[in-house]
Amino acid sequence: MIKVLLAEDMDMVRGALVALLNLESDIEVVAEVDSGDEILPAAKASRPDVAVIDIDLPGKDGLTAATELHEHVPECHTLILTSLGRPGTVRRALDAKVNGFLLKDAPSDKLANAVRSVAIGRRVIDSELALSAWEADDCPLTPRELEILALAARGRNVADIASDLFLSPGTVRNYLAASVTKLNARNRVHAIRIATDAEWL
């Protein structure tokens, strides 16, 4: 029997997914939660084989929760569900070492088969999602440039960012200028918009 933890914040959708999975003779939903913050404690308590996680959850998002599971409950494999197959999201999911990535509108038998495959350690990625990730551009920014641009996107000014990261204000300005140049942006605000739209932030 494959034990499943299901994380979905919409009650009706969660109920439908639980019912669908419990119809399978070899799958049992042993825990269900409606926020990202509950995933790790529930997984530690129920020790599921697979966590089926909606990517957009209140509290911690699905990918952050999947990363935590990978670290703290390594025997639990992760299957991410999303309603939007954006290339940046797929790349982030792969970077988070999730085992599977499916669109929410996939047929119910596809979900059950994905759970079975993920449970035995196989990677399952919807073909449309894989193609979109393959065709997406790589991010030209370094991790530090992304970190600083993300702080700027949250409204932090140069002095704040410098203080947060123990850098000089001049160094922060240089990183921001490099990001603007690499993204062919008109200014910092435009660079943030480009990086956000591409889901690099």
**Spatial gap, N to C terminus:** 39 Å
Estimated share of beta-strand residues: 5-15%
- Percentage of residues assigned to helices: 40-55%
Main sheet: strands, sense, barrel: 6 strands, parallel
Overview of this protein structure:
A 6-stranded parallel β-sheet has the order 2-1-3-4-5-6, sandwiched between helices. Helix 7 crosses helix 9. The mean pLDDT is 89. Helix 3 (62-72) links the parallel strand 3 and strand 4 (77-82). It contains 10 helices and 6 strands. The chain is of the alpha/beta class and 201 residues long.
Q: How is this structure best summarized?
A:
The chain is α/β, with parallel strands linked by helices and 201 residues long.
List keywords for this structure.
alpha/beta; about 50% helix; 6-stranded parallel β-sheet; 10 helices; about 200 residues
